[in-house]
């Protein structure tokens, strides 16, 4: 079925998800196979030769991902970081320079600083919500990648994708947007001029905390097609592909993405407002609040504010730890984006790897991934936690 002219929620359910032609099974099968029979040497059926190079379950997911982001091509990887690694090692050579947000996912910062740093790639971290700072950080001729994450992690800063895409493209840099936090249901960076989208599909796309995966989605146009082709080769040659079971789980999760993101957004806003009222909370970082500095921009470039929020505790690190260890429904764990609510203490958990760097997260910060449980139960959990501060 060609879903190009269908709306988002229809594409999420149908793009790449044709019924099985041999049996009529409504759901495309999980092709648990490493290799494919050839009809004579080189006689491939549907182009499949060996599952590192291609697998129909993975193709189904990649088609779905490209349709959701409005991209020309998508690749599915074993993890979000595997996707980032494949992209960066394809487009960078030693001596190149990367501009990266100062509030990005800790693992992205670690990958660029430690793995690519050792390889001779330099980077500058900047507040990407400050366009002048980004302009000043770009080194004409050597900056090859501008890496944007919005909303950022964990401080939920909002960066202007359209303005950054213009800045990056003028400088000849590839503009990469990590769209994990918003998901394509709430934000469409390719439409705003980005070149490549990165996802940890582990989070909202999978949506059920039961699979690790990553993806790249490439925008249309000759230059981007050329990058996509080179990254496809890297994926094939270096091998960080997603397996068929992982691809299936991710595809299944994606079908409910639109409706989940609506509920995540509603629940998170209710919790942000409740937290904002309490003396023990110094600040609530949620783009859906009028008090958030990026509220207006988020309203323009997103179609909802999402399920992630962070808080700064008035009582500092000690109070933050107590908060993170006192919730009941919000389970203390890394990761985010699942149907269940999670609480995380970034400075010791997700962002421990950036301690002592320019991307360090203050000890007073707690991050919440607000799930899609009944909001009254979530609010009651927040209330009992606040009483214990
Ligand atoms: C989790 C995450 C990643 C890394 O993805 P993995 O699937 O854990 O490798 C990258 N970016 C963001 C924003 C993330 O939350």
What's the helical proportion of residues?
A: 25-40%
**Could you tell me the radius of gyration in angstroms?**
21 Å
The first-to-last residue Cα distance is 55 Å
C-alpha geometry: globular
Uncertain residue ranges: none
Mean pLDDT, as a whole number? Answer: 97
Secondary structure tally, helices? 12
- Report the CATH architecture of the largest domain: 3-Layer(aba) Sandwich
Bound molecules: pyridoxal-5'-phosphate
Number of domain units: 2
Structural class: alpha/beta
Q: Work out the number of β strands.
A: 12
CATH class of the largest domain: Alpha Beta
Which series of helices and strands comes N to C?
HHEHEHEHEHEEEHHHEHEHEEEH
Q: What is the CATH homologous superfamily assignment of the largest domain? A: Type I PLP-dependent aspartate aminotransferase-like (Major domain)
Provide the β-strand percentage band.
5-15%
What fold name stands as the CATH topology of the largest domain?
A: Aspartate Aminotransferase, domain 2
Q: Major beta sheet, specifics?
A: 7 strands, mixed
**Which sequence of strands runs across the widest sheet?**
1-7-6-5-4-2-3
């Amino acid at each position: 079925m060609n879903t190009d002219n269908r709306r988002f929620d229809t594409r999420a359910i149908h793009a790449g998800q044709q019924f099985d032609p041999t049996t009529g099974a409504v759901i495309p099968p999980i092709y648990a196979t490493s290799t494919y029979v050839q009809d004579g040497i080189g006689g491939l059926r549907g182009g499949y030769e060996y599952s590192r190079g291609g697998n129909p379950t993975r193709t189904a997911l990649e088609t779905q991902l490209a349709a959701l982001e409005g991209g020309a091509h998508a690749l599915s990887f074993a993890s979000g970081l595997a996707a980032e690694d494949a992209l960066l090692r394809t487009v960078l050579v030693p001596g190149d320079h990367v501009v990266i947000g100062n509030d990005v996912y800790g693992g992205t910062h670690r990958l660029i600083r430690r793995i690519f740093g050792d390889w001779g790639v330099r980077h500058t971290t900047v507040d990407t919500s400050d366009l002048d700072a980004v302009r000043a950080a770009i080194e004409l001729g050597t900056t090859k990648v501008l890496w944007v994450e919005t909303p950022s992690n964990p401080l939920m800063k909002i960066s202007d994708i359209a303005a950054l895409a213009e800045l990056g493209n003028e400088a000849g840099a590839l503009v990469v947007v990590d769209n994990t936090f918003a998901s394509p249901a709430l934000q469409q960076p390719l439409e705003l001029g980005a070149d490549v989208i990165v996802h940890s599909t582990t989070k909202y796309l999978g949506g059920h905390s039961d699979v690790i995966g990553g993806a790249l989605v490439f925008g249309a146009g000759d230059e981007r097609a050329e990058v996509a082709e080179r990254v496809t080769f890297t994926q094939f040659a270096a091998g960080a592909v997603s397996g068929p079971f992982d691809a299936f789980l991710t595809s299944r999760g994606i079908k409910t993405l639109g409706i989940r993101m609506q509920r995540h957004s509603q629940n998170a806003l209710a919790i942000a407002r409740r937290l904002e009222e309490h003396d023990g909370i110094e600040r609530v970082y949620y783009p859906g609040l009028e008090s958030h500095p990026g509220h207006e921009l988020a309203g323009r470039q997103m179609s909802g504010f999402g399920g992630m929020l962070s808080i700064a505790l008035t009582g500092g690190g000690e109070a933050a730890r107590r908060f993170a260890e006192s919730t009941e429904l919000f389970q203390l764990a890394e990761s985010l984006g699942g149907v269940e609510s999670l609480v995380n203490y970034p400075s010791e958990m997700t962002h421990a790897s950036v301690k002592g760097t320019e991307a360090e997260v203050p000890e007073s910060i707690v991050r919440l991934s607000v799930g899609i449980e009944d909001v009254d139960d979530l609010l009651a959990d927040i209330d009992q936690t606040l009483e214990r501060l």
